[in-house]
Amino acid sequence: MSLPDLATSAAMELAQGAAAISAADFRILTEVIASARKIVVYGCGREGLMMRALAMRLYHLGCDVHVQGDMSCPPIGRGDLLFVSSGPGKLATVNALIAQARGAGAKVACITAEPDGPDARAADVRMVIPVQTMARDQTAPSSILPMGSVFEGTMFLAFELLVLTLRDRLQQGSEDMRARHTNME
């Protein structure tokens, strides 16, 4: 397959994955993020990188956002949100963090491909991306992309759409966002 054909196929998979997200789940997640006092994000591996990318944009939108595991991550409690990624639906670290956050009184949101997994079931809010993850890449591969790449790439696209929606909801313009961008590059 040629590079243009590969690019088109991969981009189509990501677009189809994002288009398959429930509009109701997307709206609910938008509102939960917009109303959170403080947001802490977490994900494992490449999913964690996508969560970090989202954290950066949420910061640009003026949200009080942190990445779990960073030295500067504060405690969370009532009025706060733990937003986790659990593509395969069951990750020990994610499950432990959900229990900790719930015990502290925080809300929990989970992005996943497995809505019936224990991590998604333990969350208050779920956004499902119904695509292949590493949990299903060997039994019935449905993507030209390897392993969990289609899930991770669709996360990035979905998060960009979430940022666009939140930008309007929070009444933040491009200049507001740019003013919060680091000057230490």
Automatic annotation (TrEMBL):
Pfam family for this entry, one: SIS
GO BP: carbohydrate derivative metabolic process
GO molecular function: carbohydrate derivative binding; isomerase activity
Gene3D superfamilies: Glucose-6-phosphate isomerase like protein, domain 1 (3.40.50.10490)
PANTHER family per UniProt: 3-HEXULOSE-6-PHOSPHATE ISOMERASE
InterPro entries assigned to the protein according to its UniProt record, in alphabetical order: PHI/rmpB (IPR017552), SIS_dom (IPR001347), SIS_dom_sf (IPR046348)
SUPFAM superfamilies, sorted: SIS domain
SIS domain segment(s): 33-150
Similarity-based family: Belongs to the SIS family. PHI subfamily.
Protein name according to UniProt: SIS domain-containing protein
